[in-house]
Write a structure and sequence with these properties.
Length: about 200
């Protein structure tokens, strides 16, 4: 039971980043919001392939049997398999533009959705590594790093997003970059979260 709050906080932190991006783009305009939604339509449908959740079971069994070396071997095997899956997923994300064009969407929306997917594609390795590290640690009842990294990522994503996407607060004198900055901020924060998790 003591693990539940930290795991819940970690999940909420990740969902919060998506909500933050949506809110920021909603203030940029309807075109930006629609483009990101179109991107999410394709990337979510294909990104599910890299969301394996079986590693914690194997690691938990190995740790319970007193074989930490086997747990490490499962982690390495999981990373190898996930890397083999991640490459085709990255290829699918790179095809966002041509795929969305098949649905006869407005070209400007398709181009922006394609850009959004291409930038977020750079976060796929970070997502795979974060997922593996989180499962490896949580199987050993170590969940605080995941919760901390998730909350810190949410806060940084919101703060940097406000400044770079919307130019808020205005007294900083940062010119808002709007839509193009949003996926860059999210991708950078996901890599930063991974670094934070590993440093912990």
């Amino acid at each position: 039971v003591p693990l539940v709050p930290a795991i819940f906080i970690g999940r909420v932190g990740w969902v919060g980043m998506k909500v933050t991006d949506t809110a920021l783009l909603g203030h940029v305009g309807a075109h930006a919001l629609t483009s990101s939604a179109l991107s999410d339509l394709w990337t979510s449908a294909t990104g599910v392939l890299i969301q394996g959740r079986v590693l914690n079971i194997f690691v938990g069994n190995a740790i319970g049997a007193g074989s930490p070396k086997v747990a490490g071997e499962w982690l390495q095997l999981s990373l190898a398999v996930q890397a083999c899956i991640a490459l085709p997923v990255m290829g699918l994300w790179a095809l966002t533009g041509p795929v969305l064009s098949l649905f006869h969407e407005e070209p400007s929306l398709v181009n922006d959705a394609w850009y959004f997917s291409l930038v977020l594609m750079a976060a796929i390795p970070a997502r795979v590594l974060s997922s593996a590290a989180t499962q490896f640690l949580s199987a050993q009842r170590i969940v605080k790093p995941f919760a901390f990294a998730a909350l810190a990522g949410l806060a940084v994503n919101l703060a940097v997003g406000l400044v770079l996407v919307l130019g808020v607060p205005s007294f900083l004198g940062v010119r808002p970059m709007g839509f193009p900055a949003c996926p860059i901020v999210t991708t950078a924060v996901e890599w930063w979260q991974l670094g934070l998790l590993l440093l912990w």
